[in-house]
């Protein structure tokens, strides 16, 4: 699945690189159509809609002469762009007025009317070392060219400069990562590559533009390494940055020393090599999914890498449409969209984590409240328990003491009365003994060995039913055992019989004479339910809550200390299951013990139909 995703993303990245190359080609075509090169020989034919560019060699020469032909009487103009000024202009030897100093991006311009049969235009330029070109055409065409050029440069350069300064400001305030710092450096270096377009009449500007493209490509490698790299490209990128800066410095020093622009070919070769290396870094990071939104970060590298390599090989052509700045603007836009998506993803993950923490806190709070309520219920049950102990032990002690006082206190009694008092004392002593045994039963339960084994349940249930018939013969209750002969479970016979005896005793207490107590077992889900059902008065829903707690006694429990069902719950838990009750007032009650299969825990959804978890009387 991941390989398929990587292949799709790689195909998308290649498609984007091809699209960037197509955009560069379209920009070059548009620039070539907007301004056409003037022929080097013969007269230059001017038309109403076209602008012709007459190349001017750099150097000490300031005069430019050209033969022009065009529509007689039509208004034409000659212009230079940038800081170049026009000292003087003459048409067929007659001076033209309106010459002025050039302005950035706007330049200077003179206008003239075309004589019949053409004319010779002579310009004297004001510049240190000659202009790039003189542009010839109608004033309207030159104004449109100048306006479009200025609008494109101002818009794109302002966007790139703003983004670069903004990112660097974020880095200074420690609100941005290192890859954004590299992006800010790329934006600022991109401005230097446009020095040749803005100040092309100065040889230093052309030298700076050509060599700074190599530094720009090195900064692009730095961005790719920080965004998608794995550390292997750190030293090569640092060396590339040093090489780019050194190449720019050497080019400017050689220009000052010799007056010529040198080292342009090495600068172009280094630019292409570094653009290819930036693409490889992005490709490798995309292949190993270096980070979330790796495709977005790789896509941010593609526009500027393709644009810088294109201009290094085919030369800059940004008179009307600054293609490299357009690619840089595309890079910053893609990168900011990618970072915005990452920030949105981080925010969603943070919100999801906060919701999960809130959910866990709520669950823990509810659990603590339930535990607190259970502890309060146990405290109430314990208080009632001790009060009942004091009452139940005080009554037989009072009877025993009174009987002994009558027998041994010298009060005249007959033999029959003395025997009756002694018998009464013995019965109350036995009652106290039973109470003490009941108190010790729960404490001694955990000391009893527990050795569960897989066995049939039918013999155990039938044995318990037969034993109950003998013990409770006088109650008039009928005992039945309903269980499939081959039904097996994993249980400890002694522990389970202890729990069943207590449930049977409970059932007999509430079942009227002639009623039935049914012992049953059936398989459900991942275990077996063993149950004891009576035909008594039933248990109200509010009475079922907390009925398995120690010392709990229901409103209709006439005797006992509330330990019997706590023992049942402990037996169920020791087997890895739970005890449960199903009852409605007037319809009897069914108490069950869930015995899970070996290696399984009792699932919450495997309770009998209509059951509510947990509490028996």
Automatic annotation (TrEMBL):
Query: Which reaction equation describes what this protein catalyses?
Result: ATP + protein L-histidine = ADP + protein N-phospho-L-histidine
What EC number(s) does the entry state? Answer: 2.7.13.3
Segments spanning the bilayer are 150-169, 238-259, 265-283, 295-313
Positions of region (Disordered): 597-617
Q: Set out the biological process GO terms recorded for this chain's protein.
A: osmosensory signaling via phosphorelay pathway
The record's PANTHER family line, in alphabetical order, gives: SENSOR HISTIDINE KINASE GLRK, TWO-COMPONENT HISTIDINE KINASE
Q: Which SUPFAM superfamilies match?
A: ATPase domain of HSP90 chaperone/DNA topoisomerase II/histidine kinase (SSF55874), Homodimeric domain of signal transducing histidine kinase (SSF47384)
Q: Does the keyword Phosphoprotein apply?
A: yes
Q: Where in the cell is the protein located?
A: Membrane
Offer an example of a GO molecular function term for this protein.
Answer: protein kinase activator activity
Q: Where would I find the Histidine kinase domain in this sequence?
A: 388-599
Q: Which Pfam families match?
A: HATPase_c, HisKA
| Keywords recorded for this protein, A-Z | ATP-binding, Coiled coil, Kinase, Membrane, Nucleotide-binding, Phosphoprotein, Signal, Transferase, Transmembrane, Transmembrane helix, Two-component regulatory system
Query: Which chain positions lie within coiled-coil regions?
Result: 343-374
Signal peptide span = 1-32
Q: What is this protein called?
A: histidine kinase
Q: What is its main location?
A: membrane
């Amino acid at each position: 699945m991941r390989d398929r995703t990587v292949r799709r993303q790689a195909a998308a990245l290649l498609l984007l690189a091809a699209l960037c190359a197509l955009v560069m080609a379209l920009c070059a075509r548009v620039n070539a159509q907007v301004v056409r090169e003037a022929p080097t020989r013969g007269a230059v034919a001017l038309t109403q809609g076209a602008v012709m560019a007459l190349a001017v060699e750099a150097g000490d020469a300031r005069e430019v002469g050209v033969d022009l032909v065009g529509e007689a009487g039509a208004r034409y103009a000659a212009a230079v762009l940038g800081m170049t000024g026009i000292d003087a202009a003459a048409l067929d030897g007659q001076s033209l007025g309106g010459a002025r100093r050039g302005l950035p991006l706007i330049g200077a311009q003179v206008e003239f009317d075309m004589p019949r049969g053409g004319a010779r235009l002579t310009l004297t330029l004001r510049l240190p070392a000659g202009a790039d070109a003189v542009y010839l055409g109608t004033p309207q065409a030159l104004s449109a060219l100048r306006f479009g050029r200025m609008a494109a440069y101002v818009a794109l350069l302002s966007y790139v400069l703003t983004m670069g300064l903004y990112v660097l400001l974020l880095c200074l305030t420690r609100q941005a990562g290192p890859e954004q710092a590299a992006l800010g450096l790329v934006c600022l270096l991109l401005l230097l590559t446009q020095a040749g377009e803005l100040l092309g009449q100065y040889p230093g500007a052309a030298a700076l533009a050509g060599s700074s493209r190599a530094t720009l490509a090195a900064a692009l490698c730095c961005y790719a390494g920080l965004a998608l790299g794995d550390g292997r490209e750190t030293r090569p990128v640092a060396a590339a940055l040093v090489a780019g800066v050194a190449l720019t410095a050497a080019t400017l020093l050689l220009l000052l020393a010799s007056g010529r622009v040198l080292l342009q070919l090495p600068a172009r070769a280094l630019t292409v090599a570094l653009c290819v290396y930036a693409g490889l870094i992005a490709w490798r990071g995309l292949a190993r999914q270096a980070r979330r939104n790796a495709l977005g970060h790789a896509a941010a590298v593609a526009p500027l890498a393709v644009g810088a390599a294109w201009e290094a090989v085919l030369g800059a052509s940004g008179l009307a449409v600054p293609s490299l700045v357009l690619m840089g603007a595309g890079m910053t836009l893609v990168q900011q969209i990618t970072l915005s998506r990452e920030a949105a993803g981080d925010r969603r993950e943070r919100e999801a984590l906060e919701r999960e923490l809130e959910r866990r806190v709520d669950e823990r709070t509810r659990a603590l409240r339930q535990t607190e309520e259970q502890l309060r219920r146990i405290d109430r049950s314990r208080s009632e328990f001790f009060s009942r102990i004091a009452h139940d032990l005080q009554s037989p002690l009072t009877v025993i003491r009174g009987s002994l006082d009558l027998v041994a206190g010298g009060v005249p009694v007959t033999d029959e009365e003395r025997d009756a008092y002694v018998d009464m004392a013995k019965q109350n002593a036995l009652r106290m003994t039973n109470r003490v045994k009941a108190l010790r039963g729960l404490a001694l339960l955990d000391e009893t060995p527990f050795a569960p084994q897989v066995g049939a349940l039918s013999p155990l249930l039938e044995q318990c039913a037969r034993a109950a018939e003998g013990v409770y013969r006088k109650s008039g209750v009928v005992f039945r055992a309903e269980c499939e002969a081959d039904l097996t479970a994993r249980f400890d016979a002694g522990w389970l019989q202890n729990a069943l005896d207590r449930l049977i005793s409970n059932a007999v207490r509430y079942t009227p004479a002639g009623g039935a107590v049914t012992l049953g077992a059936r398989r459900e889900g991942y275990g077996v339910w063993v149950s004891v059902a009576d035909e008594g008065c039933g248990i109200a829903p509010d009475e079922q809550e907390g009925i398995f707690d120690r010392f709990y006694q229901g409103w209709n429990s006439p005797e006992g200390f509330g330990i019997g069902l706590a023992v049942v719950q402990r037996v169920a838990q020791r087997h890895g299951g739970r005890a449960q009750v199903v009852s409605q007032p007037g319809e009897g009650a069914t108490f069950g013990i869930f015995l899970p299969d070996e290696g399984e825990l009792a699932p919450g959804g495997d309770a009998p139909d209509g059951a509510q978890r947990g509490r028996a009387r």
